[in-house]
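Form 7-S
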Amino acid sequence: MTPAARPQTIQIFLPLGDPRGIRIAEITTRIVQLIEVPRPQLDVFLAMPESEQVAVYVLFGHSDDGAEPKVYIGQTGDLRKRLASHNKDKDFWPRAGADARGEYTAEGFVVLKGSKGRAQIAKAFAHHSFAKRRNALIEQGRIVVEGDVTVFTEDVLFASPSGASAVVCAAASNGWLDWKTAGGETLSEVKRGG
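Output:
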């Protein structure tokens, strides 16, 4: 006989006030937390006291060709040190649209002026055709590198959402899944219905 389920409350805290940013969720009667950290905000999270805890952690991303999801699961007694190491050594877990905005049009996908992406290119991405497009955009001055980010100096049209997200993330990316609305819906859900 299974015990009857009982009602519980899940509390979600937004330390930066942005629902697309760092999110801390917990069942109010438990001491376990779930913390979601977009990679572009990792430095902010590493400065928070929550990063000093013992943890089981999961890194989500995509395979080099962007076709398959990829997951890395680990555990550590020093989350801050471990995530800082993974930030340097594991390329697959960027979040598309680091601080980027885009628009799906009849011509393709447009990354809007002022959008920011990742400056450091993923090792496995260096010889990808989208990496060549990214380098050409930098040479043309349509994207500029400012420290550890890239900034789009004008609207840039891509033939596909994946090309756009790959250039933003400097890594292979499935744009249909990685581009999301402010409400968290994927581009696939909005345009393809799922």
